Amino acid sequence: MSTEDGTGSKSQEKGSVKTLAIRLEPALHAQLSLIAQLRGNTITDEIRSAVEAHIASAKTAPELASQAESVLDTIERDAAARRDAISTLFGSAETSDETTAAPTPSPSRSRGKRSGSEDSSDS
């Protein structure tokens, strides 16, 4: 639930809040102001209630659920591709040394040292 925060508006108990700025036409603002006044609420309370109702409605919309499922599938595919890329590049804790195609470079080896000193010692 929400509680008074000392400024006359309500804030979430023990939680953080995000501040949003919206632009309303003067007539819409006047109507919202009147509704808030008649209900004994602030404009912020009325906006929060409207947003909560909008979200509750969206949760029951089948087309939105379908879109969300599609987004989740895309996220999973992208995450799998990134895991594979990291595994290919650096090896994986799940792959054994025998199955690794190329040896993983030692973390103590510096990049600058690798290109210069190794070439001169092979000659």
How would you describe this structure to a colleague?
The structure is a single chain. The protein starts with a strand and ends with a helix. It has 4 helices and 2 strands, in the order ββαααα. The chain has a two-stranded antiparallel ribbon. It has 123 residues and is mostly helical. Residues 1-9 and 95-121 have low confidence and may be disordered. The protein has helices spanning 26-39, 43-59, 62-90, 111-122, and strands at residues 2-4, 10-12. Among the domains are: 21-60; 62-92.
* Oligomeric assembly: single chain
Give me the side-by-side strand order of the main sheet: 1-2
In total, the number of strands is: 2
Low-pLDDT ranges: 1-9, 95-121
* Proportion of residues in helical segments: 55-70%
User: Average pLDDT across residues?
Assistant: 78
Radius of gyration: 29 Å
- Main sheet overview: 2 strands, antiparallel
Q: Strand share of the residues?
A: under 5%
Please name the defining characteristics of this protein.
mainly alpha, two-stranded antiparallel sheet, 2 strands, elongated
Q: Concise description?
A:
The protein has 123 residues and is mainly α.
